[in-house]
Write a structure and sequence with these properties.
It is a single chain. With 390 residues, this protein is an alpha+beta fold. The protein folds into two domains: 264 residues, Naphthalene 1,2-dioxygenase Alpha Subunit, Chain A, domain 1 (Alpha-Beta Complex), CATH 3.90.380; 115 residues, Rieske Iron-sulfur Protein (3-layer Sandwich), CATH 2.102.10. Helix content is 31%, strand content 25%. It is built from twelve helices and 20 strands. It has a seven-stranded antiparallel beta sheet with strand order 13-19-18-17-16-15-14. Helix 3 packs across helix 11. The radius of gyration is 22 Å and the shape is globular.
């Protein structure tokens, strides 16, 4: 059914293109400027959103093999992703059950065991405690009680989702709202991670606003990717997640029978996963996407984004050169244009220059995003499943 829905989206956009029309939100939306600048609000969003919502911790392509692991600190929480001997991905708190020391520095690798650098306690890939140094002198403990604290995790559509709260009962699939069925058409579980890099940006919402916005493309990006692009966009929301595309993007389907419409065209545009992921699909250098993984930084006016360049197939030498060129261009577009402008926005708002920011009727993606930010901040733990079911 998700392919049928993609076909319907394509047809609607082709009709909009013929009519030279767009779909507009019902009204304008005003957002108080201090939600971008208040340290108190920033900490609240980290606690109520990033430490409670399912996050995309990695693409499957980053941990393809048994024994692969990734250590990271989203929203300041040290966690460890591993692919076990059974091929299943698990997520744990990166903290030894003895005294809480971290096993691995931020980064990736492959190992059979995790050994604590403090006292030498050892854990296997499944997070089980398998070795206690000087065990005969330490004293009797129930070793099962000192396994690594496991986090809720789900590998779906070639993406690894996890929740940073080990006690959370939020159902990840309920949160995804059926969106994963659309993402599954990419086939990311079989794609290749070509390259990744991490860049710094402004407040996480200032940064994320740009991923939901085509309005700025022909202006801010006029000298790179946006000069020939229209500012028009269509927005399709699935729970808190939004697909952004544009009427003209489906013109290549003209003259083809519907059954022959290629999936790569049906998936064209930007797929955002609340609260921090953007997947932008491209042609050239082999079928590819840039997955941007955005996290709040240490302070209200900072964030960091890891850009993953994923390719459907391992590239040829020619495609590798094209992919490097495109990935470098995308770094310029995001770092030197989007985030350069975003930092200026951040500075102006922090100065008190504006008491609110405005989202137009043609900026429906941003309106949906900010609406969900507020709803989730206001919703208690025991009502979260109900919020996404509704």
């Amino acid at each position: 059914m998700s392919r049928d829905a993609l076909v319907d989206i394509a047809k609607e956009n082709m009709a909009l293109y013929d009519a030279q029309d767009v779909i507009l939100a019902d009204d304008l939306m005003k957002i108080p400027a201090d939600i971008y600048t208040s340290s108190e609000r920033f900490e609240e969003e980290k606690d109520r959103i990033f430490k409670r919502m399912p996050l995309v911790l990695a693409p499957t392509a980053e941990l393809p093999n048994k024994g692969d692991y990734k250590a990271m600190k989203p929203a300041g929480v040290p966690i460890l992703l591993t692919r076990g001997d059974d091929g299943v991905v698990r997520a744990f708190m990166n903290a030894c059950g003895h005294r809480g020391a971290q096993f691995a520095d931020v980064g990736t690798g492959n190992t059979k065991r995790f050994t604590c650098p403090y006292h030498g306690w050892t854990y296997n890939r499944q997070g089980e405690l398998v070795g206690i140094a000087s065990k005969e002198r330490f004293g009797e403990i129930d070793e099962d009680c000192y396994a690594l604290a496991e986090l809720p995790v789900l590998e779906k559509a070639g993406l690894i989702f996890g929740i940073l709260d080990p006690k959370s009962d939020l159902d990840i699939e309920t949160f995804l709202s059926g969106y994963e069925d659309f993402l599954a058409h990419f086939g990311f579980e079989n794609w290749t991670l070509f390259e990744s890099r991490t860049i710094e940006g402004p407040n996480w919402k200032v940064a994320y606003d740009g991923y939901l916005d085509y309005y700025h493309l022909p202006v801010l990006h006029k000298n790179t990717i946006g000069g020939a692009m229209s500012p028009n966009a269509t927005y399709y929301s699935f729970g808190p997640h939004t697909h952004v595309t544009a009427p003209e993007r489906f013109e290549p389907l003209r003259g083809l029978e519907e059954k022959d419409w290629p999936m790569e065209t049906l998936l064209i545009g930007v797929w955002t996963i609340f609260p921090h992921i953007s997947i932008a699909s491209f042609q050239g250098g082999g079928r590819s996407v840039m997955l941007s993984q955005l996290f709040p930084g240490d302070e209200v006016g900072t964030s960091y984004t890891t850009q993953y360049y994923l390719m459907e197939n391992a590239p040829s030498d020619e495609q590798r050169a094209e992919a490097h060129e495109q990935f470098d261009l995308l770094e310029t577009v995001v770092l030197d244009e989007d985030y350069w402008c975003g930092k200026q926005v951040q500075e102006a708002l922090a100065s008190g220059a504006r008491d609110h920011v405005l989202f137009g009727r043609n900026e429906g993606g941003g309106q949906v995003f900010h609406g969900w930010v507020q709803k989730i901040v206001e919703t208690e733990d025991d009502k979260l499943n109900e919020l996404f079911e509704g």
